TrEMBL record:
Protein name listed in UniProt: Glycolipid transfer protein domain-containing protein
Keyword check for 4Fe-4S: no
GO molecular function: ceramide 1-phosphate binding; ceramide 1-phosphate transfer activity
Pfam family, one: GLTP
Species assigned in the record: Starmerella bacillaris
Gene3D superfamilies attached to this UniProt entry: Glycolipid transfer protein (1.10.3520.10)
Length: 198
């Protein structure tokens, strides 16, 4: 058994409709898996990271429930509904969740590519390239503490399951699906300037 076998939904299983609309329920279920991934890091230093993701997932889910099955079916429909209502809660949640997912994606992708690199180095580089520019002087130390608390590479991969070859194969597929979703959301938010002022 591996970590990926237990996930209720993997990013490479998330439905993408016409016009690159991402299914809300499936995406949020997959995002919960990223939040839970940090449990394997085995440090309370990651609680702020997990709480941030959980809070953003909650904002999007609340908007989805309010809009109902049709208008809340895709992430894009939720953002467009908020534009009409002059609201930003779920849009802000999606923006920050996507930033957190991009950070996780880059950290894990770098680590699986650089097999001789420790997890803390991969995630420190990922943080510098992704989230650091959005964080102020009070938030950056919290994330730096989390980076320092990353487990050793061998310990993390052992927790992800065995055999290692299967874990690496499943991780690569999961990252491919995650990247596809993240790129679609980033393009969508940038194209309409929905993230302006958030």
């Amino acid at each position: 058994m591996t970590y990926f076998d237990d996930l209720p939904k993997k990013f490479n299983e998330v439905t993408i409709y016409d016009y690159e609309e991402i299914d809300t329920s499936e995406f949020l279920a997959a995002a919960e898996g990223v939040k839970d991934l940090f449990n394997l890091f085995g440090s309370s230093a990651f609680i702020p990271v997990q709480n941030d993701m959980a809070g953003n997932i909650k904002k999007i889910r609340a908007a989805q429930e309010k809009l109902g099955p049709d208008h809340g079916k895709s992430l894009q429909k939720i953002v467009l509904s908020e534009v009409k209502e002059n609201k930003k809660d779920a849009t802000q949640g999606l923006l920050w969740l996507t930033r957190g997912l991009r950070f996780t994606l880059e950290g894990m992708k770098r680590n699986i590519t650089h097999k001789d690199e420790e997890v803390n180095k991969s995630f420190t580089k990922a943080y510098t390239e992704t989230l650091a520019k959005y964080h102020n002087m009070f938030v950056r130390p919290v994330f730096k503490l989390a980076m320092a608390a990353c487990p050793y590479r061998k310990d993390l991969y052992a927790k992800l399951g065995s055999p290692l070859e299967l874990v690496e194969e499943q991780l690569a597929d999961w990252l491919e699906g995650l990247e596809k979703c993240v790129v679609i959301i980033e393009k969508f938010l940038d194209s309409g300037n929905y993230a302006k002022g958030l």
